[in-house]
Amino acid sequence: MSQWNESGDRDRGRGRDETEDERADRRWSELIQEVRVAQTGVQILFGFLLTVVFTPRYEQLPQTERNIYIVTVVLGAAATGALIGPVSFHRIVSGRRIKSAAVRWAARLTFTGLILLLATMTAALLLILRVATHDAYVPWLVACVVLWYLLCWFALPAWIRHRHTDE
Description:
Oligomer: single chain
Strand content: under 5%
Mean pLDDT: 88
Structural class: mainly alpha
């Protein structure tokens, strides 16, 4: 059974009787839990990427692999920035009574960070596989992994969301 929310609109069966502030608090808590998982992964990957240039093997890499490395590091830095952004965002706007807007912008930063993380992981995988083997199947392996990421991170959630969203 649908409920009426604070502004007199139907709550469309969400099953929650919360004010806008309560909803923003809940959404913020959920978002921060999600960001913690992604932040940990991107920080470990980025930290590893930063060390590669200081290894003796780096000097032996062909220019193509060095270019892929540079792109990967830049993507990793951008992903790190986007995924840490919500924490800074919250700290700067905290107490200004704009949590709803802050949650929306932090969610956008998080989504952008996930896209950048996907690109970083793809480039890192490409680099590692090109160095480990020079076989022609490397692009195919990378493409398969990217398809898997897209399925797990975006397609499946979008399909479930579409399937279970009221018209």
